[in-house]
Amino acid sequence: MKNNVRSLRSYLMQRLLISLYLLWLVSTVVGYFATINYANQPYDLVLLQRANAVAAELKLGSGHEELDVVPFLPDGSDLGMPDRVVYTVTDSEGIKLAGNGNTLRPLSYRRDRPGPLFSNGEREGQKTRMVSLTFSSNGKILQLHVSETTQQRQALIRGILANIVIPELLLTLIALAVVWYGLKQGLRPLEQLRHEVLNRKRDDLRQLDGDEAPAEVRPLIDAVNDLLERLKRVMAAQQRFVADAAHQLRTPLAGLKTQSELALRSNEPQQKQHAIEYIHTSTEHGIRLVNQLLALARNEPGGQNADNFTALNLTKLAQEGTLHWLPMAQEKNIDLGYEGASATVTVQGDTNSLLEMLNNLIDNAIRYTAPGGLITVGVSTTPQGAELSVEDNGTGIEPQHRERVFERFYRILGSGQSGSGLGLAIVAEVAKRHNAELKLDAGSGGTGTRISIFFPRH
């Protein structure tokens, strides 16, 4: 499988290399045309002066031209002057009148442009530069064309370009080296960070140190640290769940094993029946304990997020939950009922979690309320949001225990009730997950217990 992972260093170097190359290329092209322009200026001036000298020797424009005079012009044999210069004198129609050149152009090619006219051409496979002048003589127009090869110009242009392009190329290479070194130094904190993460143990969830990292990388490090923190909470919750499960299930399972062995060895029907009844009771207790542990794990931080929250009818949920526990309340001769808002009270939450919370509240109230007691489930609205409450007139909870009853496995001694101590812990976790405020007070008249959950307004 092809590896498509792209190195940040390679990517930046590639971009910078392309940018520097394009910059060097543009600079070279611009320098080339600028060099041609500046190199032509002094040579064009010399060529114009030579043309004026030829015109003076031939007395062009005086009316007494001496076209048979042959002016001295470089023929290219001199090493100091390798360019050959030729001239041609023509009339307005382009007919040659004198000269050693063969430039035959009618006057119309000037297109009414006055003064010296420079142009580029080619002669015998060599590039040339020519200047054309016009003179008026006895009502006629004479043209003088002086042309020279451009070897000296080309040599000058090549020399200037060499002095421009080569230093620019060297500077570009130096810039690339500096950029490469700068990238290496700039990315060193990332490399160190990579080694730090790579060499960590799998259970090492310490925060990454981003103090020396570039500012552009800090958001990434902060995001990774946030992920590590959330992962730490999830792992802590898992470890806590495993520890809780092991602690709570060890004793019941050992009891089940002992009673089952006793039932298998015993031949007395009464003793065997007693063991079977104990196994049945312990199994029910174990099932309840496992269900509560699972409920606690589902509602712990990191167990689930708020993405599955929906708008739900809290009034309907409370009424249905109350109806579900009516048979058990009637068995104990407890008056269980719903009092509160009849209109729809909407909250954002998870139906299963809230129902689990309500079931634990009602179950806890039934357990600690004496026969003939009263339990009231209510839903109301407050300026801050919705309120769900469960109130009973049972034995109540002393103030010194009210904070601790929401801890896991905390049970008040002498309550006379069996249980795992997880019911109110589940209530606390569900409330925390829903960002709700949990409050425990005495019931009406100072007797019993009232537990209220205040949901924020959305």
What does the model show?
The protein has 458 residues and is an alpha+beta fold. The chain folds into three domains: 8-158, Beta-Lactamase; 218-299, Helix Hairpins; 306-456, Heat Shock Protein 90, CATH 3.30.565. Helices cover 48% and strands 18% of the residues. It has helices spanning 8-58, 151-186, 188-198, 218-265, 269-299, 314-324, 326-331, 351-367, 423-433, and strands at 85-91, 96-99, 117-123, 126-137, 140-149, 310-313, 335-338, 346-349, 374-382, 385-392, 437-442, 449-456. The strands form three sheets. Strands 2-1-5-4-3 form a five-stranded antiparallel β-sheet, with helices on one face. The protein has a five-stranded mixed β-sheet with strand order 7-9-10-12-11. Strand 1 (85-91) and strand 2 (96-99) form a beta hairpin.
What would you say the CATH architecture of the largest domain is? 2-Layer Sandwich
From N to C, what is the helix and strand string?
HEEEEEHHHHEHHEEHEEHEE
**Total number of β-strand segments?**
12
Helix content: 40-55%
Write out the strand line-up for the largest beta sheet, numbering strands in chain order: 2-1-5-4-3
Shape from CA axes?
rod-shaped
Q: What percentage of the residues does DSSP assign to strands (E)?
A: 15-25%
Average of pLDDT: 80
CATH class label of the largest domain: Alpha Beta
User: What is the rounded distance between the termini?
Assistant: 50 Å
Radius of gyration: 51 Å
Q: Outline the biggest β-sheet.
A: 5 strands, antiparallel
Number of domains: 3
Helical segment count: 9
Within the CATH hierarchy, at the fold level, what is the topology of the largest domain? Beta-Lactamase
Assign the structural class, choosing from mainly alpha, mainly beta, alpha/beta, alpha+beta, or little secondary structure. Answer: alpha+beta
The residue ranges in which pLDDT falls below 50 over 5 or more consecutive positions are 413-417
